[in-house]
Amino acid sequence: MSSTNAGQGRPSALRGLIELVVTVATAVALALLIQALLVKPYKIPSGSMIPTLMIGQRILVNRLATHPGIGDIVVFHPPDGAIAIGPDGDGVCGDRNQGGEQLQACDWPSGAESAQTFVKRVVGLPGDHLRIVNGKVFRNNVQERGAYIQPCDTGPGYCDFPREITVPRGYYYMMGDNRGISDDSRYWGPIPQKYIVGEAIASYWPLDRIGIF
To answer: 3-class SS at 30?
Structure first.
């Protein structure tokens, strides 16, 4: 009798194991699909978006939102070598005066798409006219306003680009909220729409910064 019961139990246990494996595999596949197509987590690596985003903060990005508006926070692929360009790098574009001071922010895309991911705020849309004074953007002659903008006191090359530029059609202009240290479109130009990964929609870590953007 016990031998028969044992024999009947083995197929049942096997079926249970198979169901568990299938359930776990399905859950993993769905999670990967959601991350690949819908929502993806990112960790903030630098202080360029302080105070909005702190170093180490984790956010969720909507991968379907690739046509952002003014003020949206987006994840995107910068041009190749963007960090090396920067405000003090050799690859800074834009007109300069005789003293070497950069008169205008970079108004053309400076390189092919890189594998890096940056997080910045959209400050200019396709066709917009921009100039930057004291770290604040004048978009179509209207001054940018927002409590998120940090004071920019690092001087020429960071805060002031008085000569107006035009954002090319199909491109977006990105800047960090921490204007005095951010490596952004001022130095390597606007970003084509196809470089945009998605729009930041929420913060989930640390616990005291959980919220919707």
So the answer is: helix
Nearest to 128 by CA among 63, 199, 185: 185
Respond yes or no on whether the N-terminal peptide bond of residue 151 is cis (omega within 30° of 0). Answer: no
> pLDDT for 64-84, tens place per residue?
999 999 999 999 999 987 866
Distance in angstroms (rounded) separating the CA atoms of residues 184 and 129: 17
| pTM (two decimals) | 0.80
Query: What is the structure's pLDDT at 136?
Result: 93
- What gap in Å lies between CA 41 and CA 35, rounded to an integer? 8
CA 99 vs CA 96, 102, 178: distances in Å? 8, 9, 26
Specify whether the CB–CB gap between 188 and 200 falls below 8 A: no
What are the CA-CA distances from residue 173 to residues 55, 61, 73, 137, 158 (Å)? 22, 19, 12, 11, 15
